[in-house]
Amino acid sequence: MYEVSKCAPQEALRDLDRAFKNFFEGRAAFPKFKKKGVHDSFRLTGTIKVFPKHVQLPRLGKVRVKEETTKFRGRILSATLSREADRWHVSLQVELEIPDPAPVEGDPIGVDVGLDHFAVLSTGEKIEAPRSLERNLKRLKKLSRQHSRKQKGSSNRKKSALRLARLHRRIKNQRRDFLHKLSTRLAKTKPVIVVEDLAVENMVKNGRLSRAIADAAWGEFRRMLEYKTRWYGSRLAVAPRFFPSSRRCSACGHVLSELRLSIRHWTCPECGACHDRDVNAAVNLLQWFNSA
Ligand SMILES: [Zn+2]
Q1: Which residues, in sequence order, are CB contacts of 79 under 8 Å at separation 6+?
Q2: Which of 140, 154, 191, 275 counts the highest number of beta carbons within 10 A?
Q3: Ligand 1 center to residue 237 CA distance, Å?
Q4: Residue 19: how many CB atoms within 10 A of its CB?
């Protein structure tokens, strides 16, 4: 403990405290031990300075950084260092006054999480995740399989672990870039963004890797929308969990008792309207907001 900055254990205890508070107040599950090598990170407070090509950290001194830091603004509160594969990142928490944004003009929009597409808008627009991301997800499958066949403790396994970790990092970056662009576009151009209240924790548990990744992406997207709508003067509206956005006919309001996931198109038995499953759901979300 004495080899590292006193902040590292201190801040870890602070995190533990928050984890227990979240647990006892019913916001999170019981804290789990962190595993070495998985999401390695620590947080430092104290004198942190930023230079054009360096960051000065307590105990570690001046550390060269790859990215230019000239665009940096705000008062630094803490620095978090984290490792992704064979790279280290430093993120700085800053305090900064942001002037109240002017309200965004235009029409509200409903956004549904698609199964075939990343998201579908109530305007009918279908948004797909970038091809390169899809390709890398396929490569990930192959690489994971190869990795699992390597002998435990062998140098070949170590090498493949690094390859795998690098690919995970690339996928994460591609996904984040895509999510940032989309959430910024929506938050800047739509006064109200209506989404469904999905239990992301439950979805991630559902077995398949590709599904789990898509669900995690949706959770991240939600989180981005939450803060970006506040930054840019729009707002996020969340339809309640029991709202039947998929099963409701957006033309007449008839609600089907059931709609299987495999059904992509359906015709309303009440009014005869033909629906694309995801567009209909997005339109319903928008209608929910307009009537609420
Ligand atoms: Zn109908």
Answers
A1: 43, 44, 45, 48, 55, 57, 90, 91, 92, 93
A2: 275
A3: 25
A4: 15
Q: How far apart are CA 203 and CA 201, in angstroms?
A: 6
Q: Taken in order 103, 107, 108, 110, is the CA torsion positive or negative?
A: negative
* pLDDT tens for each residue of 257-269: 988 878 889 999 9
In the block, tokens 């398949």 appear at 208
Please state, in angstroms and rounded to a whole number, the distance separating the CA atoms of residues 254 and 276. 15
Q: 203 is written with which tokens?
A: 């979805």
Beta pairing class for 119-121 and 41-44? unpaired
- Please state, in angstroms and rounded to a whole number, the distance separating the CA atoms of residues 22 and 232: 29
Cβ count near 7 (within 10 Å): 19
Instruction: Quote the tokens at residue 3.
Output: 């080899």
Instruction: List the one residue out of 223, 233, 207, 215 whose CA is nearest residue 103.
Output: 233
**In the chain, what are the domain boundaries?**
7-95
pTM, entire model: 0.80
Q: Which residues are catalytic?
A: 112, 196, 278
Q: What pairing do the DSSP bridges indicate for beta strands 192-196 and 274-276?
A: unpaired
Q: Distance (Å, rounded) from C-alpha 164 to C-alpha 37?
A: 13
Chain segment 210-238, per-residue pLDDT in tens: 566 666 788 889 999 999 999 999 999 99
Question: Could you tell me the distance, in angstroms and rounded to a whole number, from the CA of residue 270 to the centre of ligand 1?
Answer: 5
How many whole angstroms separate alpha carbon 162 and alpha carbon 48? Answer: 31
Q: Which residues place a Cβ less than 5 A from the ion ligand 1?
A: 249, 251-252, 254, 268, 270-271, 273
Give the span between the Cα atoms of 118 and 130, in whole angstroms. 10
